[in-house]
Amino acid sequence: MGHVTTDDGVKLYFEEVGEGTPIVFVHEYAGDHRSWEPQMRHFGRRYRCITYAARGYAPSDIPESPEAYGQDRAREDIRSILDGLGIDAAHIVGLSMGGFATLHFGFHHPDRALSLTVAGCGYGADADRREQFRKETEATADRIAAEGMDVVGKAYAIGPTRVQFETKDPRGWKEFETQLCEHSTLGSANTMRGVQARRPSLYDLVDQMNALTVPTLIVNGDEDDPCLDVGNFMKRMIPSAALSVLPKTGHTMNIEEPALFNAVVEDFFHTVECGRWGLRDPRSTTGAIITAGPVNDK
């Protein structure tokens, strides 16, 4: 455990375990570095695993201004972790807010990513719900600032894509809720305003997706409704992408279904490391339904 310092002087706390090919885990808004414990324990047996607390999440620094937060900052903070630990390239695994950062990292630093796992990524992307998402993020940030994260966290933990976790694993969900309520009020409000509310819609990033050739795995829970359509969209737009959907699963999939999540991601890593993860066969995108082309009866 220790800290690395970003280009703008923010200290990011990290923990690591294991040896071998590196993996960097990037947490969601409602999580922190502790959210990846099932993955640190599993993958740490064969990989060098790094998890870190994003800016605004103790014990990392908590900048006072919302302007110190943003999608570009989140992307470059991944690079700072790699640079600070002397890592040339790693498997990057991100959930939700961390999934957005992971995807953008792949756009801007493809040479630093052995692969990209983009999980639970899509909130606020739909064009017809952008304004609703903006209003909800602003209202949530205001409520956090007024009431404190120890209060708002309890409501956030039982959102419509998190009740699945509570139903399946009340003990695990309670640990998640407790950790969420421990988050910094200032950091949580600023992250909501600076990162969540301002990030671009994924539907506006088609050119970047079309150009992405880093091996990419998109993972969604089938009851994480805000991510399902955009997950399919990313699968179609990214030529190096595959899509995995976990059944009867919500948003917090890596701790809700850790064994299943780990198995899917581990198989992805193995395929990439064996050199068998190619781009999508163009014959599968011709637009035909049954045959490859016109049928010749002669």
UniProtKB/TrEMBL annotation:
<feature type="domain" description="AB hydrolase-1">
    <location>
        <begin position="22"/>
        <end position="258"/>
    </location>
</feature>
<dbReference type="Pfam" id="PF00561">
    <property type="entry name" value="Abhydrolase_1"/>
</dbReference>
<dbReference type="GO" id="GO:0016787">
    <property type="term" value="F:hydrolase activity"/>
</dbReference>
<dbReference type="InterPro" id="IPR029058">
    <property type="entry name" value="AB_hydrolase_fold"/>
</dbReference>
<dbReference type="InterPro" id="IPR050266">
    <property type="entry name" value="AB_hydrolase_sf"/>
</dbReference>
<dbReference type="InterPro" id="IPR000073">
    <property type="entry name" value="AB_hydrolase_1"/>
</dbReference>
<protein>
    <submittedName>
        <fullName>Pimeloyl-ACP methyl ester carboxylesterase</fullName>
    </submittedName>
</protein>
<keyword id="KW-0378">Hydrolase</keyword>
<dbReference type="GO" id="GO:0016020">
    <property type="term" value="C:membrane"/>
</dbReference>
